[in-house]
Amino acid sequence: MTRKKVKLSFIENDTARKTTYKKRNKGLLKKVDEISTLCGIDACAIVYGPYDPQPEIWPSPSGVEKVLSKFKTAPEFDQSRRMVDQESFLKQRIGKAEKQLQKQRGDNKEKEKTMLMFECLSAGNIVQNNMSVGDLNDLCWMIDHNLRVIGRRIESLDSENIIHQNQSESQVMAAQIPMAPPLPLLPPPPPPPTVSDNDDEIAMMSRLGWI
Prior knowledge:
It is a single chain. The chain has helices spanning 14-39, 61-72, 76-80, 86-123, 133-176, 197-208; strands at 45-47, 56-58. The chain is mainly α and 211 residues long. The chain has a two-stranded antiparallel ribbon with strand order 1-2. It is flat, with a radius of gyration of 46 Å. The relative contact order is 0.03.
């Protein structure tokens, strides 16, 4: 059973927020332990929570110091290559939301023009007289696009009909060709002549001159 999508927003209820914090904190530390074991990397976690007087550290204070020292000795480019702070994270989320909003606006505009096109086709004229030049151009593009789609569909159906018609004609022609009568069966060959013992004796006496 798949988990339902969680809405990423601040939890107003104190009890629910505390319960979620403890559950997610435990899962986060477990994931850090798993990725360190499976991938053989040095990892650490420091979680500052409002419900504990001391931050929770994994795997240990000495382990955290080891990882941080290794990180600080790395080149500055490697340190900041994949680093994301709160501001960068929010900018990424805002940029993603703006792209989704722009896409949704485009979809809504296309649906509006499609509905307007069908209304104009039903009425036989332009049903809105206050349309701007841009709206009219969009409507013309929508009509031309649908006409091209319909034309391609008609061509596809015509091709399919021609193929079916040729197959039907071939079947009719094959049915009209008379079948050749079956060839008569040949009689079996006669058995080879057999020579009896008396015939052998008569031939031997003839060669000896007795008869």
